[in-house]
Specification:
Blueprint (H helix, E strand, L loop, with lengths): L5 H9 L5 H17 L10 H10 L4 H17 L9 H6 L6 E3 L9 E6 L10 H15 L3 H6 L1 E6 L5 H4 L4 H11 L1
């Protein structure tokens, strides 16, 4: 999206402390920090990718640096968690309908996501596949500046949730979910 509405530009300036000057300055500073870090020194990060983390941290480059570094660590430890998903995956598995992205935003500009937990079938889709689907979806949604600035609103629909689904909420899976969401 090239054009942002006026209320979003105002929010960008007031809440996220982003001006053209701070954007350039913090982007240069973050690139330097990543270049000097052993874990990230050989990686060429796209500008729009780094801007996501700067906006999330309100242009605090130290925090943004930690977020990027954590994502790189996650990628190294769990390489499949950020791999792309083939289209056939969405055509053949009913459990992909667990997450519904609404076509319109709320009046504040937030992306609205509905979680329909009762549609998840652990026999059809493994927890790892589900986590991968969620991770890839959010990484893609966060490429949109409107979502970076305004965030998400989640609606949780527990209709049809059963004990089989709750059994997937192991401490290990909850730990991974927590760290992947950071």
């Amino acid at each position: 999206m090239k054009h942002l509405p006026d209320f979003v530009l105002q929010k960008l300036k007031e809440e996220l402390k982003e001006t053209p000057e701070t954007r350039v300055k913090s982007l240069m500073e973050l690139r330097k920090m990543l270049k000097d870090e052993q874990l990230t020194c050989g990686i060429d990060f796209e500008e729009d990718f780094l801007i996501q983390f700067l906006r999330h941290s309100k242009h605090n480059t130290g925090k943004a640096f930690n977020f990027v570094r954590n994502l790189v660590r996650l990628r190294k430890k769990y390489p499949l968690s950020l791999d792309s998903i083939p289209d056939e995956f969405f055509l053949t598995k009913e459990s992909t309908k667990t997450i519904l992205l609404l076509p319109k935003r709320c009046p504040e500009g937030c992306t609205i996501v509905i979680y329909r937990y009762g549609l998840f079938n652990p026999k059809e889709m493994s927890v790892e596949e589900f986590q991968r689907m969620v991770m890839v979806m959010y990484m893609q949604l966060l490429r949109d500046p409107m979502t970076q600035i305004n965030g998400f609103k989640f609606i949780c629909d527990f209709k049809g949730t059963n004990l089989q689904i709750l059994r997937t909420c192991t401490p290990h899976n909850l730990y991974l979910l927590y760290h992947k969401s950071l």
